[in-house]
Amino acid sequence: MSRTGLFSAAAFCLSLLSCAPPQHAVDEKYYLISSNTTVPYWQEARAGLSRAAAQLQVKAEMAGPDTYDPKAERDEFLATIKKKPTGIMVSASDASLLKPEIDAAIAQAIPVITIDSDAADSKRLVFVGTDNYKAGVMGAKVVIAKLQGKGSVVIYTMPEQANLKDRLRGYTDTFAEHPQIKIVELVDIKGDPRVAFDRTMELTEKNAKLDAFVSLVSTAGPEIAAVLERKKITGKAIVAMDTDAHTLEGIRNGAISATIGQKPFTMAFLGVKVLDDLHHHPPKSLSIDWAQDSFSPLPAFIDTGATLIDKSNVEAFIAARKSETSSQ
């Protein structure tokens, strides 16, 4: 073909593209539903949601209670189904509570994926998030090193949340290899950081023999550190979760030993793209148990990764975050 012919073919292709209907309809809208939407973790997820929506030129919205309230999250999910959304991603604060609602959405041909905290027994299509068991193993190794294989540990959690169950398993399985490390208490903070503060205060005032404090949630680590600083207690290991500003500052000043950073921005960003692909290239059925299908077009789990952040890399992490947020 001559050069003129090539230019003509290219021009023809461009004309087809310019005349083609847009991929996304004006009423295409995706929802992210979580609990405790005002905490920094979910604000990072909101940024990922907005970034993906802008790239795809679709609408996206975060919804859910601004406190830890699984029942309110379920109610928000039900209200969202009635809006006939293009797709829903949800962080299941209580998987058993949300399972029937997720299944109902799937029955109405609304694609649903989970992010951050899974509802594995539901008909959700994909889970996008951290390998929480590995995150627990990662944190446990920090505790073991700090305590040199011997000591008493208290862990702060919310027992009904699936991702926290997996993190706890990672800790307990790893500690089992070091029988001189004992978990002496599990504190249910009930989604309220004040519970973490108050219980830590009670433990210190009783002079409880504790060598390490572990938070499986983003909000408890800074509260634990605040109590120990107030009481002028030093030499204790604190392993936190996630990367809000107070946690990072605690690592900077030595109050917190380390934290495990997840990627809520990535979870929400990728979640929109997964839902968008499911909408434009739908599988033959949403109700098939794809996890049991060797030829499934969908993975059961997309691991967004986790990072151990301590004194050695906290400054680099903060600088990278500032660079990224300033470019948005």
Overall shape = elongated
CATH class of the largest domain: Alpha Beta
CATH topology of the largest domain: Rossmann fold
Strand fraction equals: 15-25%
How far apart the termini lie comes to 45 Å
Order of helices and strands: HEHEHEHEEHEHEHEHEHEHEEH
Mind telling me the CATH superfamily name of the largest domain? Response regulator
Structural domain tally: 2
Q: How are the strands of the biggest sheet laid out side by side?
A: 2-1-3-4-5-11
CATH architecture level-2 label of the largest domain? 3-Layer(aba) Sandwich
Largest sheet: 6 strands, parallel
- Determine the oligomeric state from the structure: single chain
Low-confidence stretches: 1-21
Rg calculated over all Cα atoms: 23 Å
Give me the number of helical elements: 11
Q: Which range best describes the helical content: under 10%, 10-25%, 25-40%, 40-55%, 55-70% or over 70%?
A: 40-55%
Mean pLDDT: 91
Count all strands and give the number.
12
| Structural class by SSE content | alpha/beta
Describe the structure.
This protein is an alpha/beta fold and 328 residues long. The protein has 2 domains: 23-130 and 263-297, 3-Layer(aba) Sandwich (Rossmann fold), CATH 3.40.50; 132-261, Response regulator (Rossmann fold, 3-Layer(aba) Sandwich), CATH 3.40.50. Helices cover 46% and strands 17% of the residues. The protein is built from 11 helices and 12 strands. A 6-stranded parallel beta sheet has the order 2-1-3-4-5-11, sandwiched between helices. Strands 7-6-8-9-10-12 form a 6-stranded mixed beta sheet, with helices on both faces. Helix 9 links the parallel strand 9 (237-241) and strand 10. Helix 2 runs parallel beside helix 10 (264-280), helix 3 (70-82) packs parallel to helix 4 (95-107) and helix 7 runs parallel beside helix 8. The protein is elongated and about 60 Å long. The two termini are 45 Å apart.
